[in-house]
Amino acid sequence: MRKAWVYKRKHIKGWWCGWYEGGKRKAKALPSKALAEHFRHIKYTELNSDVFTSVVHFDRHTISTRNRKAGKAMPERPVPEETMTELSNHVATLPDGQEQLFADKFNTKKWDRIREQVKFPGLTFQVLRRTFASLLAQRGVSTAVTQRLLEHSSPQLTNDVCANVDPVLRQAVGLLSVASRV
C-alpha cells in the first residue's frame, strides 16, 4: 500500500503533502492543513486505485467491486442501461481469451494521456465522483442513497463532498423573479 503524508516545513508558509511516485519523492504545497489533508486523501486514492477488482453483471445492469487487500466485497452498483449496452458492445470486440476490459493495467500515465486528448487536464477520478454526487443531490436524491452509492462512512462526509443543495430550497429560490434577485 502506497501512502501520502502531510507535513509542515520550517520557515516556509503553508502545509505540504508528500508521496512517492515512480521511485521519486514528490511534494505539493497547499495554503492550509485542511487542504493538504484533502489532497493527501485524493493522492492516496490515486496511488492505490489498483487494489480493487470489478465484476460486471450485464444481466442485472450492475457492477460489483472487491477490495483485494481487505477481501471486502462491495455492494452492486446500478449502471444505466445505455452504458451497459456500450460496455457490452466493447466487450464483444475483445480478443478471445481476454477477460478484462483493458489488455494491460490502467495507470496514471494512461489517464494523463486521455485527459490531454479530451482537453480536461484537471479531470481526476475524485472530480468525477464529486460531480456524480453533486448531480444526484441536484436531482433530489437523498443523502443516504448518495452515501451508499459512493460508499462513504457517514452522511456528513457525503454532504461535505457534494454541492448538496436542498431541492426545497432550490424550488423556493426559483419562485423569485430574476429582477428581484438582482
Q: Explain this structure to me?
A:
It is a single chain. The protein has eight helices and six strands. It is an alpha+beta fold. It folds into three domains: 4-47; 51-106; 107-182, no CATH class. The strands form two sheets. The protein has a three-stranded antiparallel β-sheet with strand order 1-2-3, covered by helices on one side. It has a three-stranded antiparallel β-sheet with strand order 4-5-6, with no helix packed on it. The chain is globular. The protein starts with a strand and ends with a helix. The model has no long low-confidence stretch (mean pLDDT 77). One of its GO terms (molecular function) is DNA binding.
Short précis:
The protein is α+β, with helices and mostly antiparallel strands. It has helices at 33-47, 81-92, 108-117, 125-138, 143-150, 155-161, 167-174, 178-181, and strands spanning 4-7, 15-21, 24-30, 52-57, 62-67, 77-78. The chain has three domains: 4-47; 51-106; 107-182, no CATH class.
Q: Outline, from the CA principal axes?
A: globular
Strand order of the largest sheet: 1-2-3
- Oligomerization category of the chains in this entry: single chain
Level of helix content?
40-55%
Element pattern in H and E: EEEHEEEHHHHHHH
Extended strand count: 6
Q: Please indicate the percent range of residues in DSSP E strands (runs of 2 or more).
A: 15-25%
Low-confidence spans? none
In whole angstroms, the N-to-C terminal distance is: 52 Å
Mean pLDDT across all amino acids: 77
Largest sheet: 3 strands, antiparallel
Counted by DSSP, the helix tally is 8
SSE-based structural type? alpha+beta
Radius of gyration: 20 Å
Number of domains: 3
